Amino acid sequence: MEFRYKKNKKFHILFVVENNQVPQDTRVWMEAEALKESGFDVSVICPNIEKDKESHKRLSDIEIFQYVSFFEGKTTFGLILEYFLSSFLILLNAIKIYLNRPFQIVHIANPPDFLFLIFLPFKSMGIKMVFDHHDLSPELFIEKFGSKNFLYKLILFFEKISYKISDVIITTNESVKKAGIKRSKIGEKKVFVVRNGPDLSVVHLYPLKKDFKNNKKFLIGYVGKIDKQDCLLKLVNSIEYLVNNKKFRDFKVLIIGDGTERKSIERSVGDKKIEDYFIFYGSEYNKKKLFTLLSSVDICVEPRRESEISSKSTSIKIMEYMALGKPIVQYDGIEGRVSSQDASLYIENNDERAFGDAIIYLLRNKEKMREMGAYGMKRVREVLQWDIQKEILLKIYKEILI
Hints:
- This protein is an alpha/beta fold.
- It contains 14 helices and 16 strands.
- It folds into two domains: 4-197 and 386-401, Glycogen Phosphorylase B (Rossmann fold); 218-384, Glycogen Phosphorylase B (Rossmann fold).
- Helices cover 43% and strands 19% of the residues.
- The chain is globular, with a radius of gyration of 21 Å.
């Protein structure tokens, strides 16, 4: 079935992402593919973080327009400069796309929360706006910069206006939904939850192709960014505790990812003389290769500290770990418990030593690992997988937006 706004023209949806590339942004890409497969015309604007040669490409019959990504802001001034340059380039691409093939809906993924400003002229022409609320930007700002300064207050204002002027708001979980509604003082009528969920056609166990254990008995896995808010240093401290205090050394840690703090984390590992226990693989955007790597690990970890933002965040990698049958160790948090339930151990008070003790407990208890892994796979299959979540997304578009 195709959705048309005129006799011979399909509804055209424009996705806009500022903080990640597509298809590397799993949520945005799955949403775009789901809508394309349902009969909509879909385009995406995103930064060219990986420095692809092509600024314009087509994947799965979805057009992707990539603008130059100069840098990622690490300071408040750097963040302002990053956002200013990104906004200008997003606007140029949006105008170019609209003149060539007008879009009827713009689907904006946060952060940041001010991207609605770019599309106010389009909204005045009747374009509908979807605000896809991934992260609580004010809390994220505090976690990165530790300050409630003028920029923090401005981010709060932008979040509020994004809720008020958008035709539909989609959030990743109930915690984000409640926070957004409370701060913007709008009703629930136009706010919906579409959770992150793994695509089980891709996320499953693959035959092992390389042994990363290097004669060690166990392999611990981590996937994700290595930025300040990801707290990899806490994992390093926990591993140092295992090696030097608990004398537990029959393992390796496979780190899949990259980020602004990678070099700092590698230096910390070297300074603590535990580099023999870490493998820094780097980023892996090929999903089959990524899940082949994860198929080889025994348990997975999420070292991000419990905080106002992390407690209310739903990370898709947690459900990918579950889909692969991997038991998890993570710091406690509201949404972490909602997603993982009995597939994870939860560490209170951001206790790095307790985190290490939980790792040892699992690796020495095969039956517990098996039980937690089986529970996680079942929960993803029956509740959390993307096929279930995408039906909510499609219903929003078909019944509300068009």
